[in-house]
């Protein structure tokens, strides 16, 4: 039985798009008959034992070290500590493949161990670390740190035996860097249809609690980062309410921009139409999806959003919700305008309001739109099928002699 060791930034029990994708991959691989484990680095901040079982999956932790010192020195120290923990687990558990997931620090730690033990290494990129830093407000495009991180990313890709990316945008960027297309597999974001494939009915008690009776409900469920464009969505509300007097906005989640967004909403002339719920347990999220007519994803235009596809719109489609999103590259890979969703110009509150008002004026087309979106997810973004894309890559890597891998 094939054993796969996943090298991760963080994992369950923390909740994020990153951990949910990881859970979906590992659960699907277990169902396929493979043995899997994960090992996280120092960015996993949840308290717990060094070996932890969550949702039936086993995760190992890299022991913590002091966080003081120069950030660059600290990151190199983190890589070394992570590599030591991976090496110890490899000696104990004897995996057949190491599957490292971004950011690039994980790939760098895993490469040392893979080479030492003659194991094949696949490096999976969910977003380029340099662009994620810009999107999160911790980096600046074109800065020396941005350039250095980009060089490390390219080097890690060239050192890996195979590369996986979550979308065509990332694949195209790697090809432009000179990476052989034959070494790249696209394993797109998907949905666990066992979890999201059966929408729950709207709970009238929750509807009343949220004040959404007889409302045209626009919603966002996710993390409140600047690149998500929620400020543009709030700015669109006056125009939307004037066009659709019953319109209300439901914001579920939290993140770095939450305080600023709450202040912006309070200052809005339609503050009473905007409801913040805060974070909710993941097993309750589907009840909030059921409260929403249209899920809005107004991501801003930038390299991160043009190259990377998000997970949340797929969950919304699986839940039978209508989807409206900005026309950045990551959304265009998921949404066919007028068929599976509605696209509007990014960074433009007026365009957001116009698109949403248009959707509410076309209720007769909603069932057809929902059916098309769900069919797309079932056929092309279902994790049960997505993990099969890894299988030929694993088989090819395992067929290579160990000495050839060690010398690579």
Automatic annotation (TrEMBL):
<dbReference type="InterPro" id="IPR028098">
    <property type="entry name" value="Glyco_trans_4-like_N"/>
</dbReference>
<dbReference type="GO" id="GO:0016757">
    <property type="term" value="F:glycosyltransferase activity"/>
</dbReference>
<dbReference type="InterPro" id="IPR024004">
    <property type="entry name" value="PEP-CTERM/XrtA_GlycosylTrfase"/>
</dbReference>
<dbReference type="InterPro" id="IPR050194">
    <property type="entry name" value="Glycosyltransferase_grp1"/>
</dbReference>
<dbReference type="Pfam" id="PF13579">
    <property type="entry name" value="Glyco_trans_4_4"/>
</dbReference>
<feature type="domain" description="Glycosyltransferase subfamily 4-like N-terminal">
    <location>
        <begin position="17"/>
        <end position="190"/>
    </location>
</feature>
<keyword id="KW-0808">Transferase</keyword>
<protein>
    <submittedName>
        <fullName>Glycosyltransferase, exosortase A system-associated</fullName>
    </submittedName>
</protein>
<dbReference type="Pfam" id="PF13692">
    <property type="entry name" value="Glyco_trans_1_4"/>
</dbReference>
């Amino acid at each position: 039985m094939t054993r796969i060791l996943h090298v991760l930034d963080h994992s369950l029990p923390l909740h994020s798009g990153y951990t949910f994708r990881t859970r979906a991959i590992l659960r699907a691989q277990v169902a396929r008959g493979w043995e899997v484990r994960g090992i996280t680095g120092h960015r996993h901040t949840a308290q717990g034992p060094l070996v932890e079982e969550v949702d039936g999956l086993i995760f190992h932790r890299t022991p913590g070290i002091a966080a003081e010192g120069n950030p660059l020195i600290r990151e190199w120290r983190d890589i070394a500590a992570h590599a030591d923990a991976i090496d110890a687990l490899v000696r104990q558990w004897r995996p057949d493949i190491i599957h490292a997931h971004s950011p690039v620090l994980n790939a760098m730690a895993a490469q040392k161990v893979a080479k030492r033990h003659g194991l094949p290494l696949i490096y999976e990129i969910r977003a380029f670390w340099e662009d994620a830093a810009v999107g999160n407000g911790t980096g600046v495009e074109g800065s020396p740190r941005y350039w250095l991180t980009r060089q490390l990313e390219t080097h890690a890709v060239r050192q890996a035996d195979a590369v996986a990316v979550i979308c065509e945008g990332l694949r195209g960027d790697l090809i432009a860097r000179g990476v052989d297309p034959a070494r790249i597999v696209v394993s797109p974001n998907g949905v666990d249809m066992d979890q999201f494939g059966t929408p729950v009915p709207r709970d009238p008690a929750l509807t009343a609690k949220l004040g959404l009776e007889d409302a045209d409900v626009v919603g966002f469920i996710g993390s409140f980062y600047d690149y998500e464009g929620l400020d543009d969505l709030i700015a669109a509300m006056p125009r939307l309410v004037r066009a659709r007097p019953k319109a209300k906005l439901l914001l579920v989640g939290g993140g770095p921009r939450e305080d600023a967004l709450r202040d912006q909403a309070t200052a809005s002339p339609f503050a009473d139409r905007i409801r913040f719920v805060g974070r909710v347990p993941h097993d309750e999220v589907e009840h909030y999806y059921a409260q929403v007519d249209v899920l809005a994803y107004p991501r801003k235009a930038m390299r991160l959003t043009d190259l990377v596809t998000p997970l949340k719109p797929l969950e919304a489609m699986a839940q039978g919700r209508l989807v409206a999103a900005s026309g950045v590259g990551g959304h265009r890979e998921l949404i066919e305008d007028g068929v599976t969703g509605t696209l509007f110009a990014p960074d433009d509150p007026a365009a957001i309001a116009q698109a949403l008002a248009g959707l509410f004026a076309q209720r007769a087309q909603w069932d057809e739109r929902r059916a098309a979106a769900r069919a797309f997810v079932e056929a092309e973004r279902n994790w049960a099928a997505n993990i099969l894309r890894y299988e030929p890559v694993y088989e090819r890597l395992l067929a290579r002699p160990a000495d050839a891998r060690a010398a690579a």
